[in-house]
Amino acid sequence: LQGPSSSGKSFVLDRVADLFPPEAVLRATALTTNALYYLPPGSLRHRFVVAGERWRIEDDERAEATRALREMLASGKLSKAVAISRQGSEPETILVEQEGPISYSETTSMTRIFDEDANRCLLLTTDERPVQTKRIITTLGRRYATGCKGDAERIIAKHHAMQRLLAVEAARVRVPFAERLGEAFDHVRVEARRAFPHVIGMVQSATLLHQRQRQRDADGFILAAADDYQLARHLLAGPMRRSLGGGLSEGASRLLGRMLEWFGPEGEFTTRDAQRKEIGARSAVYGWIGELLHAGLIELIEESRGRQPAKYRLPARGVDPESTNPLPPVEKVFR
Fold it and tell me: Can you tell me the distance from the alpha carbon of 249 to that of 126, in angstroms, rounded to the nearest whole number?
């Protein structure tokens, strides 16, 4: 979960975690290299692991520290051979194993993340727009004025009950249209190999939550429907656009729209100009401009020299979110 400082990343993640029963959540502000291996056996099976802020240093040491996490996300289990010494006997090698699978979330204010970690996850962004800030402050003001927190406890209890009901029966999901979806899927970028299972996983989740409205086959599998893919496509439009469509985050896309208003189509600007205008998320502007440049949506027309910042040119128009959704439309999969 990415976003500028104070945009509510940790708050959102904590509120989502509250909706899961306590026995399904493992909260860890920080994870060391070997932390996952040496938890009590079974501690990670079907757990929602909620981590804190991601390390700001992206180097080989950090990549090594998150290797166990990548293994767990990719294969659903961990195994490690460890040599131990006991007094008066020869060293002995034991196999430390930890069963998953897990769901994992963390937050960061960085716009660039180590590729080996990023391509195993869905990258979501907070809403940094002033209109969202106004909604938040209005809601907080109402709460402070009335002393009413709403129905939070009742809503949380309902979610806990639903999650526990889902865990009673190990329901399996089959996606009858998976081959057709695969044929229509992006085959150009190698990242599609990991993106496709993400999409199927989201379809299966939607099917599982709507299992009472879905048919079953003779073997008891719940059958995914077109509505499940439609929902998955809607929810994954932003993350998949970054994985398969040029790596543009929602924050960068929104900044592009605002800059077109400030400087006009094909207008010229510097990072300093954009930061003066973008009061709400000034610290994130530099990273977003880098994303726009990398995606070819803005043009570098003058390199920086000394104290003179680089100058860029905007495109003639903004980005239509639907036109840049890299996932096949429902009509193409179900025609």
Answer: 10
DSSP 162-187: HHHHHHHS---EE-TTHHHHHHHS--
Which of 55-69, 104-118, 128-142, 296-310 comes out lowest in average pLDDT? 55-69
Supply 140's token pair: 């907080």
> Are the beta carbons of 78 and 22 closer than 8 angstroms?
no
Calculate the CA dihedral of residues 169, 231, 129, 318 and round it to 10 degrees. 150
- Token output for 49: 């692991």
**Stated pTM of the model:** 0.76
Distance CA 201, CA 106 (A): 19
- Neighbour tally for 260: CB within 10 Å: 18
Q: How far apart are CA 182 and CA 184, in angstroms?
A: 5
Q: What is the dihedral of CA 150, 153, 154, 155, to 10 degrees?
A: 80
Alpha helix positions (H), the chain: 9-18, 60-65, 67-75, 115-118, 130-146, 152-168, 178-184, 192-209, 226-244, 250-263, 271-277, 285-294, 330-334
Across the chain, what does the average pLDDT equal? 85
Give the list of residues 6+ apart from residue 92 with CB closer than 8 angstroms, or none: 83, 84, 85, 86
Backbone φ and ψ for 84, nearest 5 degrees, come out as -125, 150
- pLDDT confidence bin for 86, thresholds 50/70/90: confident
Instruction: Quote the tokens at residue 78.
Output: 């961990």
Decide if pLDDT at 114 tops 80. no
For residues 100 and 170, the model is more confident at 100
Q: Which tokens sit at 125?
A: 């962004």
Residue 64 to residue 67: CA distance in whole angstroms: 5
